[in-house]
Amino acid sequence: MGLYFLLLIPPMLLGFYAQWKVKSAFSKMSQIPARMSGAQAARQMLDHGGLSSVGIEQVPGQLSDHYDPRAKVLRLSPDVYSGRSMAALGVACHEAGHAFQDAHNYAPLMIRNAAVPAANFGSGTGMILLMAGLGFGLTSVAWAGVILFAAVVFFQLVNLPVEFDASARAKRELVAQGMIAGNEEQYISKVLNAAALTYVAATLQAVLTLVYYVMLLLNNRR
């Protein structure tokens, strides 16, 4: 139990903090006005980069924004799509950054997309096998679960450069195209840095979960 609290509770708390931080940063930066909406900023960024064929759609939800590589569409939440704020510009152009990665075959994105099926399988079936193996004393089954869960860790690790690069592209294009002034980049950074913390927390939690179960199984062998 001591090992559990040492390895798993801190990243779990960091995850809760990161979720609060991103919502807080988005709320505060939503009060800082911008010269255009999030959808307009993303459209300008995409068109300037030769990606006029990439669509932009509004979807329900809060912070439900994402880029769909299969449909080649940016899907933005109402607050981001119509919002004329620094928060809206930051999030919208971050998602546009993923479209740039897709168009230019950015290697970490290609690897991440290829890893999605394995990660989904590992997070579901892997944990089932792990719990069943531990519960019934079937060590080989538990190790199979650990191996499958390692795909989740791999996905989280490769996701970090993908998200960091999309944010860097967003800030660079917003300034270069004059959508924000140079001194306004700090507002965009507050939103994107808070979002980055959620990716770091998720990665840390996945890595330490894997470490915990590996150590648990190794200890059971003694």
UniProtKB/TrEMBL annotation:
The keyword Cell wall biogenesis/degradation does not apply. InterPro entries: Zn_peptidase_2. Signal peptide: none annotated. The keyword Transmembrane applies. Keywords: Membrane, Transmembrane, Transmembrane helix. It comes from the Bacteria. The chain crosses the membrane at residues 6-22, 128-155, 196-218. This is Putative neutral zinc metallopeptidase. The lineage of its organism: Bacteria, Pseudomonadati, Planctomycetota, Planctomycetia, Pirellulales.
